[in-house]
Design goal:
The protein is of the alpha/beta class. It folds into two domains: 1-37 and 78-151 and 183-194 and 205-316, P-loop containing nucleotide triphosphate hydrolases (Rossmann fold, 3-Layer(aba) Sandwich), CATH 3.40.50; 318-393, Ubiquitin-like (UB roll). Helices cover 35% and strands 17% of the residues. The chain has 13 helices and twelve strands. The protein has helices at 13-21, 50-53, 130-148, 152-161, 166-173, 181-190, 202-216, 231-238, 249-260, 283-299, 304-315, 350-357, 359-363; strands at residues 2-6, 38-47, 64-65, 68-77, 104-110, 219-224, 244-246, 318-324, 342-345, 365-370, 376-377, 388-393. Strands 1, 2, 3, 4, 5, 6 and 7 form a seven-stranded mixed β-sheet that branches. Strands 9-8-12-10-11 form a five-stranded mixed β-sheet. Strand 3 and strand 4 form a beta hairpin. The longest helix is centred in the middle third of the chain and has 19 residues, at 130-148. It is flat, with a radius of gyration of 23 Å. The mean pLDDT is 94. Bound molecules: guanosine-5'-triphosphate and magnesium ion. Magnesium ion is lined by residues 13-14, 33-34. The site of magnesium ion has 4 residues, from helix 1.
Length: 395
Amino acid sequence: MLVGIVGKPNVGKSTFFSALTLATAQIASYPFTTIEANRGVGYVRGQCPHVAFGKQCTPNNSPCENGTRFVPIEVLDVAGLVPDAHAGRGLGNKFLDDLRQADAFIHVVDASGGTDFEGNPVGVGDHDPVLDVSFLEKEISYWIYGILEKNFTKIAKQSKLAGTKIEKSLHEKLTGLSITESQILAALRHTPAEQDASLWNDQDLLRFCQELQKIAKPMIIAANKADIAPKENIEKLKATGYPVVPTSAEYELALRRATKAGLISYVPGNNHFEFPSKDKLNEKQIAACTKMGDWLRDNGTTGVQAVLEDVVFKVLDMMIIYPVEDEHHWTDKQNRILPDAYLMRRGTNAKDLAYKVHSDLGDNFIRAIDGKTHMTIGHDHVLKDNDVIKIVARA
Ligand SMILES: Nc1nc2c(ncn2[C@@H]2O[C@H](COP(=O)(O)OP(=O)(O)OP(=O)(O)O)[C@@H](O)[C@H]2O)c(=O)[nH]1
Ligand SMILES: [Mg+2]
């Protein structure tokens, strides 16, 4: 799974990325600090089934700490987009190609309104952050449009002549974009244009790209710099209809780094932290910690972890599944207990899981067994969050 971090320059994308992954990305208060993409790993949390099972797990693909499972998510931080990037402004939008495989986007917005469209600092509240939402939507749909537009009419005509379904031809054209045929079909249904795509004009194609973007590259808004943002800006962003989480990437990064340095003790996503030894901190550090502590008390969390978890569990509607070899001991062939956690969309069935684990398992699927109830389940049995599943396949 890949989540892309997008937004205009200087809104805190790299700060957000660094807070999530603790990777070192360059951060500075001017536009276009990031040019080359930063790739890292963040984690979403789940309750590990080992707790109810009563035996400590032996994690392989996802660490477990005190009963909390941390499932890795690949995160990508790219350069800032400016209005008309698709026409080459700023750094253009070619770098969005790094995000072809993204399953969803986190749109980092400067909710403080302290940066203009180009990311240049202005007074807090001087820029309306809601405008950033519509321009970014536009740039992303133009990016998809740029991929589809070449030879579009020709492809649509050929597909019509050959009797090939249009969604199939478009899917081929969108190879590598992590977009499924059924998502294309859903977008076609939502596009207010002729059913026959060979008759489409540029506007029709653009509308289709907008629909496809909504379905295949869904977006959540991180209303960042919430530590200095006027409250009404957050409310205005919520009115856009997107899921919105107020965030302070700066605080989250400071808290995680201070924890890593052994100065404080903070669990990402919590609304508090501890000072194990206040004497280790200088006056400046104590003042910063007091400020952050007060803010957390009043606002809940920094929101950074919540954005990633919301994008995975709410926007993409994922759940965590644990495939095992032995349904009684919940082990794999190497006797590891609950080794792997898989993220699967809600609605996926036992056979989908088999394919996710290995295509051979999918091809040779016979049945599955629910490790909690020990009941046999068929290929179309819909899985539930936190299921422990054994797949039985022909050897
Ligand atoms: N107050 C406040 N400042 C923040 C926050 N997040 C980031 N910043 C500051 O915003 C500035 C830009 O941060 P970056 O992370 O470099 O922003 P970016 O979006 O990656 O910028 P580009 O790479 O230039 O597109 C820096 O001065 C950060 O310290 C936040 O939550 N609150
Ligand atoms: Mg950056």
